[in-house]
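Researcher: Good morning. I'm working through a list of sequences from a screen, and I'd like to move beyond sequence-only analysis. For each chain I'm collecting a predicted structure so we can compare shapes side by side. This is the next one on the list. No need for commentary yet; just the structure.
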Amino acid sequence: MTVLLGIAGALRVASTNRMLIREAARVFAPDRFVEADLELPLYDADLEARGIPAAVQLLADQIAAADAVVISTPEYNKALSGVLKNALDWVSRTEGAPWRDKPVAIMSAADGRGGGDRAQFSLRLCLVPFRPLVLPGPEVMVADSSRQFDGEGRLVAESYQKVLADLMAELRKAV
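Model: Good morning. Structure tokens for this chain:
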């Protein structure tokens, strides 16, 4: 049974990054798709001293249990979102190195013309210490993202559909 974990770096319910991880899951067609919840407290060493919050431990456990992870991040001020960075910081404080050797596909959706290219670059840098198997590509960067999904959350442009299918094929091979 193949388990795919989807992590959207945005909290908004109608986020195009949330739509993108759901599209990735549809294309990947896992036996089970789990969507992570990043509504976590801000990292605080005093809070950590009282114990890892349950929501953080759940996320770390989901990462560890998944066969593969797909992450989609918006671009906030030329980098990954604070929500996603906070989640990465928290998970780094858990036991067991859940990211180690985990196949990970990254993608982005942003309203800008770059489609989140700088967010992906910063996300790759943030993942390095955890030693996952981050796929080198193909790069999925959905530009002008608020216009790229239909009413059912499906990508409309064939060019984006193709590159997403190629990335999910690579992720499936890595599993």
